[in-house]
Design goal:
With 129 residues, this protein is mostly helical. The chain has one domain: Orthogonal Bundle (Arc Repressor Mutant, subunit A), CATH 1.10.10. Keywords: DNA-binding, Transcription, Transcription regulation. It comes from Sphaerisporangium rhizosphaerae. This is Winged helix-turn-helix transcriptional regulator.
């Protein structure tokens, strides 16, 4: 039995939310989906737990895009009440190493990224006011 994904895996202050590097065809949720699948196949409902900020429609769109790009495989598991699981393909697994580098970079520059975001937001408010 695999461990459930933690609900706070991608909380609002996670460096992944500040990472300016996009993976997976420009979809802003793709990298998070790939991270959720790094330890093995998951059902849609399992992915929804840590990806609570993503609408069901947005998650479906991300999964379809990743599947189309060859990074994720969708499998219908037969049995008593068939179910669908998503897992990384070998190509998708090859994304894990560069994503780890990008996440480490975001962690190293966390304070600078936050400062830049806050500075920009404050300037935007000044211009609007």
């Amino acid at each position: 039995m695999r461990q459930p994904l933690p609900a706070d895996m991608f909380d609002e202050l996670c460096p992944s939310s500040l990472n300016p590097i996009r993976f997976g065809f420009g979809d802003k949720w793709a990298a998070l989906v790939i991270r959720c699948l790094q330890d093995g196949p998951r059902r849609f409902s399992e992915l929804r737990v840590p990806l609570g900020r993503v609408t069901a429609k947005g998650l479906t769109r991300s999964l379809r895009s990743l599947e189309r790009g060859g990074l994720v495989r969708r499998t219908v598991v037969a049995g008593a009440g068939s179910r669908v699981e998503y897992e990384l393909t070998p190509l998708g697994r090859s994304m894990l190493a560069p994503m780890a580098v990008a996440c480490a970079w975001a962690e190293d520059h966390w304070d600078e990224l936050l400062e830049a975001r806050e500075s920009h937001d404050a300037a935007s408010l000044d211009r609007a006011g």
